[in-house]
Amino acid sequence: MRHTTRRNLLKSTLALGCSAALLPDWARSAATSSADVNSLAGTEFDLAVDQFPVQVGGIRGRAIGVNGTVPAPLLRWREGDHITLNVRNNLKTETSIHWHGILLPFHMDGVPGVSFPGISPGESFRYHFPVKQAGTYWYHSHSGLQEQIGHYGPIIIDPAGRDPVDYDREYVVMLSDWTFMSPHKLFLKLKKDAESLNFNRPTLGKPAGLGGMWGAMRMSPRDVADVTGATYTYVINGHATEDNFAMHYEPGERVRLRIINSSAMTLFNVRIPGLPMTVVQSDGLDLEPVETDEFQIGVAETYDVIVQPESSDTLAFVAESIDRSGQVVATLSSRARARAAVPPIRPRPMLTMADMGHGQHTMDSHDAMHPDGETHTQRASHAQHADMAHGAERLQSHSTDAHTMHRDMASADRDHSEMQSEGTPGHEMAHAGHKPDPHGPSEQPIKYEAAVSRGPGVVNLVEAPASRLDEPGIGLEAVGHRVLRYSQLRSLTPNPDARTPEREVVLHLTSNMERYMWSFDGVKFSEVTQSIQFQEGERVRLTLVNDTMMPHPIHLHGMFFEVDNGAGAHRPRKHTVIVKPAEKLSVDVTAEHVGDWAFHCHLLYHMHAGMMQVVSILPKPEHVPHEHDQHEA
Amino acid sequence: MRLVMCIWAAFWATTVVTVANAEAPEEPPPWSQADEIFGADAMRDARDKVLRNSGGQSFGFLLFNQFEHQFGDDDRFSWNGQANWGGDIHKLWFKSEGHIESGDDEAELQALYSRAVAPFWNLQVGLRQDFEPDNLTHFVVAANGLAPYWFEVDASLFVSDEGDVTTRIESEYELLITQRWILQPRIELNASGSDIASRQVASGFTDIDVGLRLRYAFRREFAPYLGVEWQSALGETRDMRSQAGEDTAELKILLGLRAWF
């Protein structure tokens, strides 16, 4: 294998005039940056949050960001170091920094109101924590809507040992959606008319959605993204297409692209036409290499890919918004001053009946629902499996049944009676427990499923949610080349915790697009009266059912999701997972780090509208609370 | 006197909306593990703030659905709009419509408490004050929302302080010809439960407006339009008015602006 030269990030000696103002050096395009990388490395960092002018696609706007650049400085850490970050707030409003995907004591996690009080204007906060992992991560504000207008930056943690990925050159590729609007005005606009930024609505000429089941349910198959290219300028490292972010390579080199979606609202389709990509890492954790031609990246997800262009062609790195209302193109070239040809944007995608949950999916295809959960990628055809799913469905609509089941379970399963009291008050719990099936696997997690609060905020509960892990994502079903699917992801090394979860918590992602209301289980964050509670050391299955028509990148702070995609001990561990429309997806979680952890949809305006909760990991009774955490801090 | 009633009703409705949208004080807090590290007071303030800012916000909305000049035998200026303020569930809701025409002005303002009762429907109660053609106050119950197949509906029942019961049903549809050219068919049907001499109204269906407006949305919020509207008295009301020598039906040409803020 080729020798690894790791710090060739954005190396170029050609200096042209800087077209995009106020970018950190690493984010300047190769054609405009100076030789050395100006990322911040070490163990002590001083970061200042300010408001400042920027230029995007030749237009001036105002950003909120860190150390005067958009994106914020690249922070380069080393696994095993203890690092200190002094964050000063020079704004007139509160700010914060959340270290996305980083495992740390919860009071260093940076979520105002959950893990700390926030950083007031003129104040500073000192973050201090040990670095226990390696990989590509990022950081961003968790205050207000600052993330939308520039308050985000990348983190690279170099492994303590040998990096399993060989590469000659690397680039950070931060995707985002810039707007010249005030993000608060943008949110108000969505509240007044949720489709006001969608310029792909059903028309007389393309009437799909006006009649039929779509019209009857007042849903639109053309409602693929809430916020679109009508207001967004899509950017790579702060560069719009015309700003041309250019990456240099020498033919034959292995180039590592660390792709981070730091958008507020945009899922992107990423491809380099004519050049396959080998995915080697996602969300900071190494994967068994898998080659593909395109992938859909959810907000807050990261993918590291290796590309190895053999010729000296000029290639286009294309990130297209999921609704194809816009795209951003960067250049990958071995020649100086190159600019890739911009490919035409592909036809707009439409939702299908499968996205409504009335699709071709049958109960038989619920891989992820299998209670055993370890090895079931095959199309499960167990009759009992389908029965169980139907049983769970029934519990939703017949509360009498639910209570009967609840009582049955309580008497049958006394060992777990303590856990039953951990429901969320404020909305009634219907415990859908199942006695161990003599013919089935010996251990089945006990299921906790809240009755979804069916107020004005919930338009629909999907009739037949299905596993969609083997699908590439909206609009990528028939693009004529390989597209990455979650079912292909396998962690490079076996996962540390092989226990079968003791219990399963089912959570519904719910919405009313017309009123722009978003919630979990029909309960907005503003209405939450108790967090979701796990016990320290507990292994829990979290099953997410998407009752909405949109894909939601769901993020849990402080721990990783082990996505139940059938890869056994090699199931991929992710900090953010896309739950597709009408999908039922399970992840296993090890509740390791005591504390209160934010849990939310990473689409910024969905979170702002209420699609958020807190997961509290409560210390084992014998522990004195927080002794452990303060130690670490 | 009626003005005082209206102000009183608006005050009352504002109070209801404010109280209903405010979060009831919770005890114990939904989570509190950071309290020991940063202090319970600091965390409580921050927690209240993040909860309020994640679904508990209040919003305002102002819509001029019609703001138009009507060309016909007698030209007139006509408006129909609404404004609301509040959270997702509870809102204070104002509606106003009327027209200015020499000798035949009509103007009304409704102040309502609106509650979201279903995903697509609001139930509203409050008062309506007529300023023209005469001062009259009504109690209002209304339902508004979005019916299947994208029909906007607003149905109101009015009981005047003289005891007369009237109803009004409005429905409109937005047909996008392109993303910016939008055709809006609209119908308004009024009925009365009794003869109301002062308004030249007989019991039964009283009048109907059927309109078609074609707008161009420069922005979704700002769309000038051209349109036609057929306005006609119905049933005994029509007979009553034609006996009085008035026109009972007319086709108007419309030029106006639809805008929201």
Overall description:
The complex is a heterodimer of chains A (633) and B (261). In chain A, 10% of the residues lie in helices and 31% in strands. The longest helix of chain A is centred in the middle third of the chain and has 15 residues, at 383-397. In chain A, helix 4 (383-397) packs across helix 5 (399-412). Chain A is mainly beta. In chain A, 59% of the residues are buried. Chain A contains 7 helices and 33 strands. Residues 1-21, 30-37, 360-442 and 627-633 of chain A have low confidence and may be disordered. Chain B is of the alpha+beta class and 261 residues long. Chain B is built from 4 helices and 13 strands. In chain B, a hairpin with a 2-residue loop joins strand 4 and strand 5. Chain B is elongated. Chain B starts with a helix and ends with a strand. The mean pLDDT of chain B is 91. The chains are: A mainly beta (633), B alpha+beta (261). Chains A and B meet through helix 1, helix 2, strand 24, helix 6 and strand 33 of A and helix 2, helix 3, strand 4 and strand 9 of B.
**Helix- and strand-based class of chain A?**
mainly beta
Give, in order, the helices and strands of chain B: HHHEEEEEEEEEEEEHE
Q: Please outline the major beta sheet of chain B.
A: 12 strands, antiparallel, barrel
Overall helicity of chain A? under 10%
Spans of at least 5 consecutive residues with low confidence of chain B: none
Low-pLDDT windows of residues of chain A: 1-21, 30-37, 360-442, 627-633
Give the oligomer, counting copies of the same chain as homo and different chains as hetero.
heterodimer
Number of strands of chain A: 33
Count of discrete alpha- or pi-helical segments spanning 4 or more residues of chain B? 4
Portion in helices of chain B: 10-25%
Question: Distance N terminus to C terminus of chain B?
Answer: 32 Å
Spatial shape of chain B:
elongated
Taking all residues together, what is the mean pLDDT of chain B? 91
As a percent range, the share of strand residues of chain A is 25-35%
Count of individual helical segments of chain A: 7
